[in-house]
Amino acid sequence: MPPERSALRVQPFLDSGAQARLRGWLDGYRPLAGVPDELVRPDGTTPEAWLRFLGALAAFPSGEFEDRFALATRHIRDSGVSHRIYGDDTERTWPLSPLPLILGEDEWARIAAGVEQRATLLEAVLNDVYGEGKLVAEGRLPAAAVTGSADFVRALRGVPPSGGRHMHLYAADLGRGPDGRWWVLDDRAQAPSGAGYALENRMVLSRAFPNLFNAMNVQRLAPFFSDFRAGLAASAHRSDPRICLLTPGPFSETYFEQAHLARYLGLLLVEGDDLVVRDGQAYIRTIAGLKRADVIWRRVDADFIDPLEMNSASQLGVPGLFEAIRAGGVVVSNMPGSGLIESRALLGFLPALSNHLLGEPLKLPNVATWWCGQPAERRIVEQQINSLAIARAFTGPGHPALARGPRMMSDLTPAEQADLRAAMNLRPLDFVGQEVVRLSTTPAWRDGALQPSPFVLRVYAAATPDGWKIMPGGFCRVSDQRDARAISMGEGAQATDVWVLSDQPVESISLLAHRDNVKVRRIMGHLPSRAADNLFWLGRYLERAEATLRLVRSLSTSLMDSDAALHASGETLCRLQALLIDWGAIDKEAGSRKVTEAACSALHDEAAYGSVVSLIRSARRTASSMRERLSEDFWKLLLNLESRLRNRQNDVLTEAESLARAEAALQTLATLSGLTQENMNRVAGWRFLDMGRRIERGVNTCRIVRQLAGPDATLDDLDLLLDLVDSQITYRSRYLEGIALTPVRDLTILDPFNPRSVAFQVETLKTHLAALPTLQDDGMPEEPSRQLIRLASLVETEDAAALGVPEILTFEQMLMTLSNAVSDRYFLQGSNATPTKKQGGLA
């Protein structure tokens, strides 16, 4: 082993313990034979930047490095940073490596220049293919290499690209080959992913090692995202445009990233149902009617983006969107059809096209690729089939043996080889042969040691008014396998940050505007109907979970031998359990078992739709559809609560244990309620969240009062009722004579000053509805307001002495009718959700 690797010549500040740790890491590192490595040069030396970084880690007291990263990893888990593997519905915690990929300024300049050149070239190719078509006409590009791709959108041939360009965001997957040069492995333009994860990787590692991050002059990512957003805005037809991020929805493999980017960039996160096309313009369905969408950054593949002209079975897209693109009424980024450049069939033609279109050779070479759609290239592939990787020429399903990427024939079974050869003979244009390049390795931290791991670096280019801007960093995937060809998240890869170093101190930059010409606003904004729907039901789920927890708490204390216990009669306990059964928290069989078993079921039975864990799970799923609208603190608390409740249905609990769990969950829900009340702006989103809470609380109160304050109610029943609606203190301070039926009904139903009463919920709902926008400016109340006026008049004029179960049932039914009216007016499924004609004041 060359002595330079462990000389520590640039680490004189390290104490003996740190030097020993660093020496042990370096001496124990074994690069793969014949493969370039980022930590160890061919001459055996270690780059100075890596020595500085590893020396700083070694300088931490023993175990602190691991502790710091463990905290960062916990932040990932608590914040719900996740991804899905295609075909798997399970959300997986984001796998982040603690060691970044470190690149020097000079090397990065060469990478950036190559990626910028490639983006320029591919934009020119797209302009020609969808425009004049000279490349095909002159024989520089075979027609079958274009039309054979499912990503070629014939419907947009001859249509000028929206916003003046086909690509606003381009990505290239790079690997360092055996010769030390960077090679382009793949191009990404359909809907490039990973930029949001790169941003999250940076946030996590800079949080774990803030001083080290600054000391090494790591270039910031924020300017790139600022430039990208400015490029999107500049492509619109008016100043201060409304920009949307079109997502496939919360079941997308990268939904976390999409929500994260929408929040970070200040974009409106929308799904296909949130948008509608009218007269060649795209609009967002909002609670105030249709509002203009100027720019749509799509994360939906082109095949699914317009069911009228592409995949008719798609439920992810916007009917008529191509019509709006042709009319120039909306900018769609990237332009549908830009995914054509992801075709491997084009790779072999790019060197010649670069010389023809740009007048210069490629600065970053392709992996050598032979498209079987040409006779000569097909013969080469056939002759060298055992030494080449066989891959799909075009994106899409393709041959099942190639579903996970390029494969060597030697990796396949004899039957798979025969089947693949038959498919290649039948449709050779669907296949390419590629040179097998073993990628370089970078150190990864596993089992307390540095281990060489193959990696792929995805670099991003954003189109701006000043040209292409390259992200100084990227999205790096590090394989946990020794085979450098096996780079796939589905095969156990980790992600890591990419540190591009600067020779000079780097200024701290954020996305805050550096100019003071931003127009100040204090308006409510335009809340999409889907977001209003989700917020409304989030409020209902959380309130229902709280009410159920109060029932469980009372059930748990009923048999406890303590001064604080609620000593209820057997009949009262039966009514309490009847409520849990009616609410779906437990089944009838559980209700007949021991109280402790019923309490445990109500808390943890995931099969019961009304159990606490099921309600919290529903709340979390609803919240996940609008993560960009919820604070990190709110999300962490909700995830933590769900994790504490899940997979506990088989626990055997005492009364004290079930009580402790119920009270702990109630405290978390109280914290969530406090966050929404104290931290959310009093705009439409908060109002829908609170309206959901108020309607649910009113309905639950009616149900509890009907069950426990009927004509045959006992003192135990009324005492339990006051406890469930948190009105014990108010009642006992107001009525010194003791508990009586009529005062209890009045306090819980008709008292407008009791925040738990039905009357209080009705008054609060009146305030919310009055503050929401209307579709018509005629001064007439809309249906939700009319329903609420009827309910309020009954509640306000009801005589407490005459109030009985039938009247309370009427209030409950009217609250449910009000809920339906709110849904019908404001949410997507309602008949008034998408007006058939433009409303006044369309922006």
What secondary-structure arrangement, pairings included, does this model have?
Blueprint: H1 16-27, H2 48-59, H3 64-78, E1 82-83, E2 92-93, E3 101-103, H4 105-129, H5 134-137, H6 143-147, E4 169-176, E5 182-188, H7 195-208, H8 210-215, H9 222-234, E6 243-246, H10 255-265, E7 268-270, E8 275-278, E9 281-286, E10 289-292, E11 295-298, H11 321-327, E12 331-333, H12 350-357, E13 369-371, H13 375-383, E14 389-392, E15 407-408, H14 414-426, E16 431-434, E17 441-446, E18 449-464, E19 467-470, E20 475-478, E21 494-496, E22 498-500, H15 529-557, H16 570-582, H17 588-591, H18 595-604, H19 612-624, H20 632-645, H21 655-679, H22 684-708, H23 715-724, H24 728-734, H25 741-750, H26 758-771, H27 783-797, H28 805-826
Parallel strand pairs: 3-22, 6-7, 6-11, 11-12
Antiparallel strand pairs: 1-2, 4-5, 4-18, 8-9, 9-10, 13-16, 14-15, 14-16, 17-18, 18-19, 18-20, 20-21
Helix pairs in contact: 1-2, 3-7, 4-12, 7-10, 15-16, 15-18, 15-19, 15-21, 15-22, 16-22, 18-21, 19-20, 20-21, 22-26, 22-28, 26-27, 27-28
Describe this structure in words.
By secondary structure, the protein is α+β, with helices and mostly antiparallel strands. It has five domains: 3-93, no CATH class; 101-344 and 439-500, no CATH class; 368-434; 530-668, no CATH class; 681-827, no CATH class. 43% of the residues lie in helices and 12% in strands. The protein contains 28 helices and 22 strands. The strands form six sheets. Strands 4, 5, 17, 18, 19, 20 and 21 form a seven-stranded antiparallel sheet that branches. It is globular and about 95 Å long. The N and C termini lie far apart (69 Å). The relative contact order is 0.09.
